[in-house]
# Entry
Amino acid sequence: MLQFREYAIAITTLLTSLIFSDTPGDPEGYVRDATNIKTSYDFIIIGAGSAGSVIANRLSEVADWNILLLEAGGDESMAGQIPIFAASLQLTNKDWQYKTTPQKNACLKNLNQQCLWPRGKMLGGSSSINYMLYVRGNKKDYDDWRDVYGCDGWGYDDVLPYFIKSEDNQNPYLAGTKYHGKGGYLTVGEPGFRSPLAAAFIQGGVEMGYENRDYNGEFQTGFMFSQGTIRRGSRCSTSKAFLRPVRNRPNLHISMNSQVIKIMIDPDTKTATGVQFEKNGRMYFVEATKEVVLSAGAVASPQILMLSGVGPKDHLEEKGIPLILDKPKVGENLHDHVGLIGMVFLIDKPYSQISASRIMNLPVLLNYTLFGGSAMSTLGGVEGVAFVKSKLETDTGDYPDIQMHFGSGSDISDDGVGIRYAHGTTDEVWNKYYKPIVNRDSWTIFPYFLRPKSRGNIRLASNDPYDKPLINPNYFSDDSDYDIKVTVESVKFSIALSKTEAFQKMGSRLYDMPYPGCEDKPLWTDEYWACWIKSSSFTLAHTVGTCRMGAATDEKAVVDPELKFIGIKNLRVADTSVMPAVPSGNSNAATIMVGEKASDLIKKTWL
# Structure
């Protein structure tokens, strides 16, 4: 079946490439790699991901400024444009293929207890490898950035205009309203396909007392069909949205396959002066006359800073890196959303969509290729998203602490490739737990806790810039066990949802095989669910916080509210690493917002 999957991806990719070929004047034409790199630019942006692509676009609007955008990877993958195949890019050369350090409380059934951490290594960064869900988070998240963390100018009313500025929403009931934009670079909409299971998800939520509503609007709590960054049935990454339309601007050079070695910083004046990077075997030293903008993400941004001599003094001395600035909090405050690999519910109806036999056949392939419809347009198989509040959340307002991704099928529907490879599940778990239900109709819930208390860090493995950093998210490590308790509540809610009439009409029932390694726990108790969660954990890839924003006087802050690096002149950080706390939802939309606001902050300084 795996060979058939690869064959179907290849055929669909070929048909898609023929229809969406690169033609002169095409706003979605491919980016050309810069070959004539100058010795000096006004701005050098490190990282062409969800924030960096936006900043490159907005700064190059100023015709008198010259901008160099550096990306460690190449261009996007054509196969990655097909939403249903989102996971197929993981563990390829388009993925950094990170792994965490061995975890004490998570990923216990993975090899060496290491969690896989997919991150995009290409134009668009992780927006080119993610599941495309467009979720902004909760209003209170941003008000807390302002009021609790001292990030003046980052309250909800401050950032909402930047969400709207980017957006070109395709839903006629949402576009152009108070909460949604129309005409921006980033296309946002719902896939052109819905299964009966997706309808049951919404109806089940209504039966439980929740509204079917726009979770990016006035209220977040509720159930909704997924909104995503998709355009005509295919992925709309930040590269497609923000770079391709402006790729021919003469003042913007985009250099791919450019591995940053370090930021060049004058040790006396503590001023960022440029960037050293390697491309195609050649070393470049390029000057930035105005600013270096670091947008490499929550993993690579602290890594690059430490390689540049900025970070915890003892750690840099241990790695033999000359110290320029002792900044102990670089790489700290790492946190992320972590859930358990999907809870599988079996059904008696032939409604599963994540199934090679139903998705990968010629009529479906042609439908998708020609019209952007069919199940191939679903966002990695995620047809619905819900936000609910657990009994442990004390806030009485619209502040849900649980999010659920609903999949109209499961990764084990056919060959189990998603479970076995993308999530790192061992053969023992596959053979004992998943193999018995291959080819069974099912649906899946991925529930997780939105506001983790656990914190980890990023550290260097060595002073070699090509070595992957040490990533320790420290999942489920908070002393109160609050993170695991709320995640257990999310599991209970998922089971309650399965018992609604909407799902019972399909004969829905939890796949109740005891999870390997948890058989000694009393089944269906909190203790059992906690064991399962810790055994079968995976990242939602909403990683933030390692260059935390805060007031300039805050000892825990790395950048100030204008995203200027505290202690280094002419250096800004603009990506998920600056977020003091992870938004209550998927992080890509918020990262694009950071890119939009950072662009205005930079213009305010230099214009």
Q: What stands out?
A: Residues 18-23 have pLDDT under 50 and may be disordered. The longest helix spans residues 588-606. The first strand starts at residue 40 and ends at 46. The domain at 2-92+114-606 is CATH 3.50.50.60 (FAD/NAD(P)-binding domain).
